[in-house]
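Case study 2.
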Amino acid sequence: QVQLVESGGGLVQPGGSLSLSCTASGSSFRVNTMGWYRQAPGKQRELVATVTTGGRTNFADSVKGRFTIFRDNAKNIVQLQMNSLKPEDTAVYSCYADGWISSSDFRSWGQGTQVTVSS
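Prediction:
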């Protein structure tokens, strides 16, 4: 079993910045892709950003140029740096990890963290 623990989030004014962090832990696992989804009230879940083991990144159009994703492969940590935040970025952000454990595929999720952008 692979567990993901998130930290960060909170309340920030428009134009501000926040950083989210997510750590995967467990035994005998390998992580391939890590990333972040978000879901705002009344809206569908949206894929925000992903990063592979090789460092290839992908971003939703709505966050390109404002968000950056970093990864520490050795520590299985992924960080989402969010700059120039807008009220429409308000959502619950959840990290995920795809990989293999005991030769089986897995996808694990973090518990979710609230990000609120408001003046």
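The two ends are 40 Å apart (CA to CA).
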